[in-house]
Amino acid sequence: xxxxxxxxxxxxxxxxFRAAAESSLRxxxxxxxxxxxxxEQHKQGVQATDARGPADSMTHxxxxxxxxxxxxxxxxxxxxxxxxxxxxxCGVCPDCTQVAARTHPDLAVLATERxxxxxxxxxxxxxxxxxxxxxxxxxxxxxxxxxxxxxxxxNVLLKALEEPPERTVWILCAPSEADLxxxxxxxxxxxxxxxxxTDDVASLLQRRDGVDAVTAERAARExxxxxxxxxxxxxxxxxxxxxxxTLDLALGIRSVGDAVRGAARLLEIAGADAQxxxxxxxxxxxxxxxxxxxxxxxxxxxPALRGQMKALEDDQKRxxxxxxxxxxxxxxxxxxxxxxxxxxxxxxxxxxxxxVNEAIADRVREVAAGVDPTQTLAAMDAIAxxxxxxxxxxxxxxxxxxxxxxxxxxxxxxxxxxxP
Length: 420
Fold this sequence. Notes:
By secondary structure, the chain is mainly alpha-helical. The protein contains 16 helices and five strands. It folds into three domains: 11-192, P-loop containing nucleotide triphosphate hydrolases (Rossmann fold, 3-Layer(aba) Sandwich), CATH 3.40.50; 198-235; 256-279 and 307-418, Zinc Finger, Delta Prime, domain 3, CATH 1.20.272. Strands 2-3-4-1-5 form a five-stranded parallel β-sheet, with helices on both faces. It is globular.
């Protein structure tokens, strides 16, 4: 097993990074004098190569793009392991183990818990990138959420990419190239990921998590091939129950009153989902922080150390805010998949086009028969509007209420047509 073994559905991208990592190993296998000469050539090649360079050559800056759940960060860390491991990413040596734990001395990671990445965070990262590697061939810097940088923050990063240190490799992750400044895009080699197939994700769940075939296939389909969400749906009964309640609630909206109550309940579901994700992580972080500060379990935190614990609590509160937003977005994604299924049935899509919500196919067909396709499309537009409003900092409760009022019209029509 290597660092590439648990990546799924991205064979073309894996080959690009595998070849680049292997090419970076070659100068180290030469005799000392020849190694120095080729090292100088490699240095020049690294600084000159951009996105238009040869597919198997190494370069100093990379951009991994792809839809949520496609495995951008997983691929970034696999590549980091391949660069920092003396065996090219064996997956079992101390270097690979340290990268997996994000504790390797030559690995720097920026994965924000905020809505945006602050300029101070990037300045600190750029400063650390100037140091030479301590134990490996490279110093690797991974930015998981490069799309969350504002323009002036991106310009700080740009200076580091324009004049990169000899042995520093930047790996940026973002949903699409358009999320970054053109000046940043021109200085990185971009590798695009595709949405993994349902079969690929289901296979991964069976192999990695020991999930049975039926559960794995349903989780992969209902997550729409989002690997992280598929894992939660396959291994967490509460996550599956919250998703089922979300769809049932949307289909039961009939009036403005239903919409108001439904919006409140959706926020509760999103909050419970966010809490389930962050609660265990928060407890582990607090316990680790107390151990590192020398505080025994159950012992009061000394006054001199309370500032550090307060900083940790503030970070966790920010993460909880972002997790709630992510929970709301997952709800909207699930609702969009529901109305996507309804409109497919209404338009007579061939059987080869699978429904995302196959488990409630009978109810989907019942609603599809009772509503006009224009109402279904209006419902989908309302879901998209809710997502845009929430992104623009409109109160989530108001955004969800407005969305559900539109969904209520479709619900009333369907109810009238199926009633005797």
